[in-house]
Amino acid sequence: MNGAPTEPEVVDEVHGVAADIGSMEIRGAATIADTAARALGVQAAESEADEPSTFRAQLRAAARVLYDTRPTAVSLPNALRYVFRDVEGTTVEELRTSVRASVAEFRDRLDTAQNDLGRVGANRLRDGDTVMTHCHSTDVLACIETAVEQGKSLSAYVKETRPRNQGHITADALADIGVDVTLIVDSAARRYLNDVDHVLVGADSIAADGSVINKIGTSGLAVNARDRGTPIVCAAQTIKLHPGTLTGHTVDIEMRAESEVIDDEQAAKIGDPTVLNPAFDVTPPRYVDAIVTERGQYPPESIVTLMRDLFGEGSDHPWDA
What we know:
Blueprint: H1 12-22, H2 29-46, H3 52-67, H4 75-85, H5 92-122, E1 130-133, H6 138-149, E2 155-159, H7 167-176, E3 180-184, H8 189-192, E4 198-201, E5 205-206, E6 212-215, H9 218-228, E7 232-235, H10 264-269, E8 280-283, E9 290-293, E10 296-298, H11 303-311
Parallel strand pairs: 1-2, 1-4, 2-3, 4-7, 7-9
Antiparallel strand pairs: 5-6, 6-8, 9-10
Helix pairs in contact: 1-2, 1-3, 2-3, 2-4, 2-5, 4-5, 5-6
């Protein structure tokens, strides 16, 4: 009697990283991408496979575990794609070495990309400018930090960004580099936009048409900014570009747990309402003035050209092969 097929072995660290990404212990698109790539490197290093086919199957299984954690954060699958792109070899040791080299190259590229992006974004900021931020973006912070290093004095209105209050992280980081920070509740954004020179937001994904998928509340902020005549700039490394949208795929909007919004006791007091907690929304390109990347600044309608240059006409998931 034949037994059930054996599932490829995935090392414990990969499962641990996946759990931390899913629970948002690990957050931020660049950090997620870096950690996911490193986890594939650990999978390769600790694999006990005897055959190249088994090694490849384990690597694909590890990638699937990581990929399933955060469906909207495209930096994660882009990191996996990058690592898989250069996995070559006819023996287990050759494959292991190629994974290690690919992971190291990707992580070095991430470091360089954020520095380059910071320099591009800082060029939009002038001495004395006031910015408004939403959520927490290391790409946005790179732009502001570089501007401060250039000697520019800046101030910021920071939206607290409920329900997880990621804006508090941004406020702390900006205060540390000498930016004058005013923390505001999300619903007060429109009130203070007249005092703002730029709205700076990050992105979890950018679609081929230039739409920006970012933390819920970004779209409403962008509409209000356009109404007030305040430029809105998205700072995003090219690992945020979603190659699947070139071939018509849509971006999944992650729904987070009700417990982030209300606990059981509070819910019971108000009749146990249905709670919807979408993590992201979509800002149409007509509300975005520019997308800043490590390769330069682009109007949203030009992103499709950059995406084709980087990814061709789309990209499959090599871990599903």
